[in-house]
Amino acid sequence: SVSGNTATLIAGSTATGGAISTLNGTTTLTGSTISLSGNQAANSGGGINSKNVALSSSMVTANNNVAVTGSGGAINVVGGSLTVTAGTSLTLNQNQAGAYGGGIQTPSWIGTLDTLTATGNIAGKSGGAIYNGSGNFTATGAVVLADNLAKDGTGGALNMLAGDVNLATVNGSATVTGNIASGSGGGIYNTQNVSVGNANGAV
After folding, report:
1. % pLDDT > 90, the chain
2. Which residues contact 49 (CB under 8 A, 6 or more apart)?
3. For 12, what's the count of Cα atoms within 13 Å in the CB-facing half-sphere?
4. pLDDT tens across 91-133, in order?
5. CA distances from 72 to 47, 66, 87, 125, 145 (A)
6. Predicted local distance difference test score (pLDDT) of residue 23
7. Which residues, in sequence order, are CB contacts of 10 under 8 Å at separation 6+?
8. Nearest to 19 by CA among 95, 81, 108, 116
9. How many other β-carbons are positioned within 10 Å of the β-carbon of residue 111?
10. What is the tens place of the pLDDT at every residue in 17-50?
């Protein structure tokens, strides 16, 4: 558990990564259950600010993290990629960012999630829950994207600039509801293909 940390803006400081900041390396979250909660940064990466981030856990939960003026309320990836190991489930609840990605901002997404739950996340610009620059975004299990907000941009829950979105492609249902964006894509915004639901599920 990583919780209750704060990076405060002072003279000469960028105040990124409320809990963890690694500008030239990789931050890896591994173990059966990882919790990232209640962290805050004055700028980007309320929980984690890192060049690369790797998620390798059966369950990663990020709740109530805040990036006050920057991007990535829980996790902000700077110039690198976010890599997900197969079998990882992700929950993002009540995270906030002043700019992009209320829960997560990353230039590149690599890998496939099992389940995804994102509720009540807020971005000041685009990507209420997740803002992703490139790479296919896939979750094979149950997906819930609910009540997320992109205040001044696109993608109330999920904002993609390149790559396909594939949700609930194997097991479970996909629920996309109550998300709001001031621009296009109240729930999901993508420049390419979006597939939601499968024979075993529903939207």
Report:
1. 73
2. 16, 17, 20, 21, 22, 23, 41, 72, 76, 78
3. 0
4. 999 999 999 999 999 999 999 999 999 999 999 999 999 999 9
5. 8, 8, 23, 11, 17
6. 81
7. none
8. 95
9. 18
10. 777 888 888 999 888 888 899 999 989 999 999 9
The model carries a pTM of 0.91
Q: Which residue has the tokens 């109240």?
A: 186
pLDDT higher than threshold 90 for residue 6: no
Q: How is residue 77 written in tokens? A: 């990836």
Lowest mean pLDDT among 125-139, 144-158, 187-201: 187-201
DSSP, residue by residue, the chain: -EES-EE---TT-----SSEEEEEEEEEEEEEEEEEES-EESSS-SSEEEEEEEEEEEEEEEES-EESSSS-SSEEE-SS-EEE-TT-EEEEES-EESSS-SSEEES-EESEES-EEEES-EESSS-SSEEE-SS-EEE-S-EEEES-EETTSS-SSEEESSS-EEES-SSS-EEEES-EESSS-SSEEESS-EEE--TT---
Residue that is written with structure tokens 């939207």 in the block:
203
User: How many C-alpha atoms does 143 have within 13 Å on its Cβ side?
Assistant: 33
Judge contact between 155 and 182, C-beta under 8 A. Answer: no
